[in-house]
Amino acid sequence: MFNEIDKKKKYLDSKRPLSPYTVKSLREKLLVEWTYNSNAIEGNTLTLKETKVVLEGITVGGKTMREHLEVINHRDAILYVEEIVEKGEPLTEWQIKNLHRLILKGIDDVYAGQYRDQQVFISGALHVPPIPLLLQEKMEELITWHGGIAQELHPVERAAMLHVIFVGIHPFIDGNGRTSRLLLNLDLMKTGFPPIVIKAENRLAYYNALDKAHTTGDHIDFIELIKNEVNQTLDLYLSAVG
What is annotated as the active site (predicted)? Predict the structure, then answer.
């Protein structure tokens, strides 16, 4: 299932270390696209170019303060992901709460980094997340799973499953989608994969695959979606190294 990906990654690894300019250029490209698409999936109306200029410190007229903060906050959360990867730290609830705190900083400081204390429903989905009373138990189970049997999975499958399980728990009032995609890439980057971008234009297929996983236990569509994005990012990196 992952033969093509493994071959591409092995070839990319054989070309490391990549030139500093190439690494910088690819990182900047993916940071902007990751931020734009992850926010756009959640309804942010800033375009890709507008996202880029906000990251450069320029205010875009006609856009809300929240939309600007979502861009800056997402960049800060990516920097935190890179810091965790560099330190080689195992996944913890503390990290997840910190990622969420960065995502909602200045937007909803009351709930930033705090598990929800009320029931939520996922718009357009059949799956209903667990009640607040079960959240701590579910998150502890997620961390135990990730540090245990999940380590036997292929890194791409494990990252996809981490995303699915986390979104199914939906531990926060808001910001679960952005946090889940950060966790997905955190897990990929820990094993040497470049971060992927789930594109806003694929939002419907993405949501349908997630809901299918949550309601039927069939994760194949979602894993396939993530696998395709990993292939595309690897192709991007390979095109840069020749």
Answer: 170
168 labelled as ligand-binding? no
Q: Which domains does the chain have, with CATH numbers?
A: 3-241 (1.10.3290.10)
Whether pLDDT at 242 is above 80 = no
Tell me: is residue 181 an annotated ligand-binding position. yes
Phi first, then psi: give them for residue 207, nearest 5 degrees. Answer: -65, -40
Q: Which of 74, 100, 163, 170 is an active site residue? A: 170
Q: Has 170 been annotated as catalytic?
A: yes
pLDDT at 47 over 90: yes
- How confident is the model over 178-202, as pLDDT tens digits? 999 999 999 999 999 999 999 999 9
